[in-house]
Amino acid sequence: MKKIIVPVDFSKHSYYALEVGATLARRIDATLFVLHILDLPHMALDDGDTPASIFMLKQVKKRMAETLKKPYLEGLNVEDEVVYDQPIDYISEKANDINADLIVMGTHGASGSKEAFIGSNTEKVVRTADIPVLAIKNRNPEFEPKNIVFASNFYGEVDSIFEKFKAFANLFNAKIHLLKVVTPNLFERTPYSQKLLHDFAKRFELENYETNIFNDKHVEDGIIEFSRLNKMDLVSMGTHGRTGLARILNGSIAEEITNHAPLPVMSIKVKEQKSSEAVLFPDVR
Question: CB neighbours of 232 closer than 8 A, spacing ≥ 6?
């Protein structure tokens, strides 16, 4: 049985994600696993038996019960869990424990409120999760993406994860828009870029697709601007999931897109490559 995990903190953004998760679960006949992490760093929860912790846990479970009564969950196979005093990594760990196929999370982006626990931590889950993460920023009551951007350098590194993106697009009979952003610092000759895109499409036997080369100052800006100009429904891409110093030095385009793009963003972690020629957006000369 397929499983989709949706963390909720009872904010509107987490409910946007839950509604999309329900739509996907209904389409693929999946179990929806709804998770709430009770984050109370200012309270001494000890072993969970203090009056304060017992009261808060009772209140949260009441809200969870109310959440599970939402009309769009009717008829679905839904499981739920409430845990407290757990780090954000628990979401990725739980997804692995229950063999989930997808994580759907709400996010408010860089300019949104910082009050929501889930919304402010979605980028961390994008970084740590071993399975696809779908970030939802706005309400999508009829989630039906028909035009999906797949952004990459198409150097071969994303080959190992593209079948998952392709399967997702096929669920909606969506058109895949292969996108390569060329910047001054990552310059490529157009014939070379075109060959990479066409070879990629041929390798994966794509039918409903088109290739696109877009010029911009920065890769992130190019992806967002292309998606806006062409009225895309969803952005998809691979991410290294770097942490620590590697993340500080190299950054994460997937996290930037998740944070700034107004569209839903799907990301999948790819394995880090030792070769300097096999990176998501290398310095091409």
Answer: 147, 148, 149, 177, 226, 263
